[in-house]
Amino acid sequence: MNKTIVVSGGTKGIGRAIIEKFASEGFDVVTCARNQKDLDELVSSVNQAKVFAMKADSSKVDEVKTFIGFINSSVSKVDVLVNNTGTFIPGEIHNEDDGVLELMINTNLYSAYHLSRGLVSGMIENKSGDIFNICSVAGLKAYPNGGSYSISKFAMHGMSLGLREELKPHGIRVTAVHPGATLTASWEGVDLPEERFIKSSDVADAIWSAYQLSRNSVIEEIIIRPQLGDI
């Protein structure tokens, strides 16, 4: 029986790269995204593994809970969970639009909180599992124009630390992944050369390497930055 990875927001960028990496290593995949066309394209292109895909907006609690039901009805066991769903709206805390904080907390934090809560009981029962939370270097150090995005990612980092302490007695490893500027849709239209960015595939490879460690060990945090420094 193949192992299973669940990746939220898996049709683009880092999520897509993680799916392609783990699928190439023999994992079955369960994922969600907001765009059905993107999901259909993912299912048809990742043909070396079973891919179970559902349209869901992870910023909405009821849709996350529906996705949890979809996961449990599609696979018998979850070996790896990647909380990847996220959004970025640049701005400053003191003058950004009303509702920006709520949107990014719902998308970047609450989605991971509810999805983890919905799946972790199965990992505890199996006494094994890995959770990778896609945080950000913005959750380690505030930077200009980070606004509520930094708030949400600091909170995501805090949740990762809490989960790590709660779940280590149960054989479950939790890793906070902190990428810097990665070449994804968030940076579309920016006039910078490709070499100034991290490749999504590099983030996926780092996660795969962390997963490959023996169960005696855990990489608690992965920090990846562009070789030429933060943007």
TrEMBL record:
Keyword Oxidoreductase among UniProt keywords: yes
The protein's matches in PROSITE patterns, at most eight in alphabetical order, are given as:
ADH_SHORT
User: Per the UniProt entry, what species is this protein from, by scientific name?
Assistant: Reichenbachiella faecimaris
Checking Gene3D superfamilies in the record gives: NAD(P)-binding Rossmann-like Domain
Any signal peptide, and if so, which residues? none
InterPro entries, from UniProt? Answer: NAD(P)-bd_dom_sf, Sc_DH/Rdtase_CS, SDR_fam
Q: Which family does it belong to?
A: Belongs to the short-chain dehydrogenases/reductases (SDR) family.
What GO annotations for molecular function exist for this entry?
oxidoreductase activity
Q: What is this protein called?
A: Short-chain dehydrogenase
Which controlled-vocabulary keywords does the entry list? Oxidoreductase
